[in-house]
Amino acid sequence: MKGYLKSEELSIKVTEFTRTMEVLFLSSREAFYDFFTKGISISLKNMINKLSRELIDEQIKCTVKGFNLNRMRKAFNLRISFLKYFNIKGGTEMADKIHEIMERLSTKLPSTQTVVCESDEEFYFTAGQLAYYIMQQSKSHNKNFGIFEPFLIVKNPTLLKRKLAEMFEIYKHAISIQNIKFKNAFGMVMGYEPEVKMTDHMKDLFLAGLLSNNIFYTKNENKEEVAENGKNE
């Protein structure tokens, strides 16, 4: 069709535009063409939820150089914007939900009292924050978002907690015992039993936790020493 890129014209680069991305592009190009040139949205609306999630997953899996937060945040924000535009569940309320959870965590994580997870949404968001912080402790010079793939493929929250525990066991030497926020968050997640598996809305919240400003890199009132967010990126 006129105006489309031909398959052979697509430049496949493992670190930027993979074969899977090509397949997703080719399967959705007609829907995007209809939407942007004809104002017909029905085809894109029907596929945008699954399409945008698969594109983000693929980008995370195949990033082989550094933690490119800006690129990943833009991709995630674009997904949420599409969901909001098409009035698909999870789009309109996501930004407010993220803000609400972050406000709640910033209040209770520095506490010296016992804190608990209050909802499945808080569980998955906090798990994303923990996953990023723990994996950031790696001293590897080849750190990349691909290391988060094991977290993305799990559906069972029990397996998600197990994966966090395994990664903590590897990198615990790099995490200060004085880091109260981390200890509270880790205890919250490990002690909570979600009712909902990590699918759809909950996976969005996990990704939001992974990609949002990391709460463990903010300074506490007690001047706990932590690195600035992104220092090791």
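Above is the first protein from milestone M3; the second protein from the same milestone is given next.
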Amino acid sequence: MENLRITPNPATDVLRIQRNQGTAAEITVFDTQGRIVLRDRMTDTTHPLDVHALKPGIYVLRINAGNDIQSTRFVKE
């Protein structure tokens, strides 16, 4: 499993996602009810995710890169 880092947390407009490997990955953001609120795709080791349209609250970010699935929480201010 690769290392996943997100900054800043809490985020206001852009959440920067950093991974050890630049393989293609699907990004899915869920709200606290489990609904998908944002989808994106990353192809490099860093990716800016635009979160400005999300309402303030707690979200779960899931990165799916083939057999490697990682999740982490972030706060949107």
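Note on the second protein: Strands lie at 4-7, 14-19, 25-30, 36-42, 46-50, 57-65, 68-76.
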